[in-house]
Amino acid sequence: MKRKVFLFGLILLMLTGCGKNEAEKSEPKSLKEEVMYNKKIDDDSYYKKISGDVINGDTLFSEMAFITGHEAYIFDPSSLKEGNFKYKKVFDIPEKVNVLSMDIPYGADISFYSDNNKKYTFRDSNYDRNVSDSYAYYDNAIYSSSDYVVKDYSNYFKVPISYDLMGNLFYVKDNILYKKNYGYYDFIKKINVEDSVSKIDGNYEGEKILKIYNQRIVKTDKAFYEVVEYYKDGVLSTATLKMKLLSKYYDEILTLTYEYVILKDYTIIPINDTLVSNNEIEYKPNFYLKKFESDLDTFEE
């Protein structure tokens, strides 16, 4: 009888142990594994790796350009889909200039904000062509590291601003986000609405803000957040949505392009694939904020 009980216990232990091992095997241990699980992707090579020769944790991207340190590059976004990172260096940035974030591009011009209340624009001097949204347009651009435009930020926004990080749509001071409300002419009221600023409330508060990506993604010392617009009590408001998976695998993230998350092993994953719910609105590979037509039930992607 004792022998039967012992054997039964041994079998039960083996079965329980096997089940535990299987559960441990199926539990995702990385961002890539969890995204593949969520997307039901079995092929490990589905998400490509790229060369990381000119990219590091401080690299900042625009739509078809990026800056690493004091070097500016252009790149072909479509080449990333095949893991073939096509890029070329186009100019050097003066050593005295500290790049905080890249600005929204116009044509092939490359602009960025510095920490000295300046906006720098390296202009494409190849004027004999029509503006187009293509890598070929950038590839044919002519830049000169000695021929660039520098303007005080006050020339673009009439409200005096003290900032730690600057972007086109919002800025950071003392770890608080502020939205820049650009002036316009109200045709209904027939009045000029002046430039103004407003604090962005959100679940990022209490954390240290480190970077602004893509004009709308905020990296703190603890998580990643997407800045979005939504209607609260009929009034257009701005808030932050915590990006669940990027925050969960925070230490794996190297940087972000307008479309991709780049991991520290240089695997690239579309930002949309990392969003668990997306709140029914996709993340677009441009600089526009998501706008929800009603109040939000949750402030997590």
What coarse outline follows from CA principal-axis ratios?
globular
Instruction: Give the N-terminus to C-terminus distance in angstroms.
Output: 57 Å
The overall average pLDDT, rounded, is 87
- The number of strands is 22
Report the major sheet: 5 strands, mixed
Q: Which band does the percent of strand residues land in?
A: 25-35%
Please mark out the parts with pLDDT under 50 across 5 or more consecutive residues, or reply none: none
Radius of gyration: 24 Å
Number of helices: 5
Strand and helix order: HHEEEEEEEHEEEEEEEEEEEHEEEHE
Q: Output the structural class.
A: alpha+beta
Helix content: 10-25%
3D architecture notes:
- The structure is a single chain.
- With 301 residues, this protein is an alpha+beta fold.
- It is 16% helix and 32% strand.
- The protein contains five helices and 22 strands.
- The chain is globular, with a radius of gyration of 24 Å.
- It starts with a helix and ends in a 9-residue tail after the last strand.
